[in-house]
Design a protein that fits this description.
This protein has helices spanning about 20-25, 40-50, 60-65, 105-120, 135-140, 145-150, 165-170, 190-205, 205-215, 220-230, 240-255, 275-285; strands spanning about 5-10, 35-40, 55-60, 70-80, 85-90, 100, 125-130, 140-145, 160-165, 175-185, 235. The protein is of the alpha/beta class. The strands form two sheets. The chain has a six-stranded mixed beta sheet. Strand 6 (about 100), helix 4 (about 105-120) and strand 7 (about 125-130) form a beta-alpha-beta unit. Helix 1 (about 20-25) crosses helix 8, helix 9 (about 205-215) packs antiparallel against helix 10 and helix 11 packs across helix 12.
Length: about 300
């Protein structure tokens, strides 16, 4: 098969994707797929332009490209502390007036806005900020910081650290889904489905090797990486995760962060048992899909 006929897959170039894409990087499915990488926002733009067929996309993009289909069972999720999606603040939450958003991810930026509105009941101004943390903290009261830089950078003294995954789970009782494999309609067949799942299975078996090999900007900390990948990041997308996606997107739509509330479409045109459970849970809930407010969220350091 010629490269031009292969399924073009885009993967996020962060540490937390390594177990998902390990098999692909090692040549799994090379006769069917061609792999490239990029930051989440760049992958979304490439998908919108038709340059890739399947991508590990931030879930907010499901509302912006509603025809996309999710590959069942796989995602980048957390239940509680994420360690790599943070709000760093120079002042208490109630005193924040301006927030610098991270240029690399739209989902994490939307999550921060959801939590300010629904949990902290506070409405600062949000702007895309500079990439350099020290500059962002000089110019803004708080900064959204995601990915490897959030995991490895030490926050300056006196800065409050709020883990957005932890705040979401405390308030909603749900996991948070940062990204999922999303595909153009009809692109994912059973072989592609099996390749993506096998890639994850191979990756989770070699987390120790991934941790030992991974370096970021001169940082090499296998213990930190191992703990992060094994204790904070999960890769299954089941009933609770589907419910969490729907709730997050519903709140984002109500806050006008997205134009529409999309239907969650699954590749292969079928529902697995876990998604059927999620559907029943959704029908049993009231039509109001709000994140519960917390009277106080403790600062994390």
């Amino acid at each position: 098969m010629e490269t031009s006929q292969k399924i073009r897959i885009g993967a996020v170039s962060y540490l937390n994707t390594k177990p998902l894409i390990h098999g692909l990087e090692q040549g799994l499915g090379a006769d069917r797929v061609v792999l490239s990488d990029g930051v989440p926002s760049a992958l979304a733009e490439r998908m919108a332009r038709g340059e890739i067929d399947v991508a590990l996309l931030p879930v907010i993009e499901l509302a912006r490209m509603p025809d996309l289909e999710i590959v069942p069972g796989l995602g980048i999720t957390t239940f509680g502390r994420s360690r790599s999606v943070l709000l760093l603040s120079r002042v208490p939450i109630s005193s924040i007036e301006r927030v610098a958003l991270d240029r690399e991810s739209r989902t994490s930026n939307a999550l921060a806005q959801v939590l300010f509105a629904e949990v902290w009941s506070h409405g600062p101004k949000f702007e895309l900020g500079p990439l350099a943390l020290d500059q962002a903290l000089r110019e803004y009261d708080a900064v959204v910081r995601i990915g490897d830089k959030a995991l490895f950078e030490s926050p300056p003294d006196g800065v409050e650290v709020h883990d957005l995954g932890e705040v979401w789970t405390r308030a909603s009782g749900l996991p948070f889904v940062f990204a999922a494999w999303a595909a153009r309609p009809g692109v994912v067949d059973r072989e592609i489905y099996r390749i993506l799942h096998e890639s994850r299975r191979r990756g989770v078996k070699v987390i120790d090797r991934i941790a030992e090999d991974f370096r970021w900007n001169g940082h090499h900390d296998p213990a930190l990486v191992r703990g992060y990948l094994m204790e904070h990041i999960q890769y299954r997308l089941g009933a609770a995760e589907v419910q969490a996606i729907k709730r997050f997107l519903a709140v984002a739509e109500r806050l006008k962060l997205v134009d529409r509330l999309p239907e969650i479409r699954l590749a292969l045109g079928r529902w697995t048992s876990c998604h059927e459970i999620a559907s029943r849970q959704e029908r049993a809930e009231s039509s109001t899909v709000e994140v519960e407010r917390e009277p106080h969220v403790a600062d994390r350091t």
